[in-house]
């Protein structure tokens, strides 16, 4: 009996490690710039994580559910957000430098984060080494537990 438990624990450990390793080597999906792109989203709240200007990119798989605004996203659905700085010029917000890129991809292996892979990238597209549970999931689950963790709404997309 003891041995069975140990085997299970070891297997779970390696499963967790391989997922963590996968997260570290995650790359941005090729060609996401060609997915449906949102209008410019301006966030003027300096305390917000998205303070600045950002654009959302939504792939074909995710779009149907996104438009409906309810339901579970199909496996493989993807969202990318590209974030830029912001500065005021003559009372008008002007887009600054690219500051970060984030990705959500529906992948049932990522049980800890609600069946989504969460990954953050530098402006150059390198993994930024964030903790997907503390730095991503916890906010998303708080804001959108009833919308399969997707916070933005199609109504604001265009
Ligand atoms: C403090 C809260 C918060 C944290 C932490 C956070 N997000 Fe978000 N995220 C948001 C909000 C709010 C939106 C919606 C933005 C909009 O409406 O344009 C969003 C949108 C997104 C989207 C587009 C899909 C959606 O849910 O609308 C992705 C992809 C995303 N976030 C990834 C991440 C990743 C990866 C991390 C961790 C590096 C992260 N987020 C951390 C609040 C958060």
Kindly describe this structure.
By secondary structure, the protein is an alpha+beta fold. It has a single domain (2-157), classed as 3-Layer(bba) Sandwich (Chalcone isomerase). Strands 1, 2, 3, 4, 5 and 6 form a 6-stranded antiparallel sheet that branches. The protein is 28% helix and 28% strand. The mean pLDDT is 89. Heme C binds at residues 41, 49-50, 56, 79, 81, 102-104, 118-120, 130, 135-136, 139-140, 143, 150-152, 156.
CATH T-level topology: Chalcone isomerase
Report mean pLDDT, rounded to a whole number.
89
Percent of residues in helices comes to 25-40%
Which CATH C-level class is it?
Answer: Alpha Beta
CATH 2nd-level architecture:
3-Layer(bba) Sandwich
Low-confidence stretches: none
Name the beta content range.
Answer: 25-35%
List each distinct ligand once. heme C
Classification by helices and strands: alpha+beta
- Specify Rg, calculated over alpha carbons: 18 Å
Order of secondary-structure elements? HEEEHEEEH
* Principal-axes shape call: globular
Task: Report the major sheet.
Answer: 6 strands, antiparallel
Supply the number of helical segments.
3
Number of domains: 1
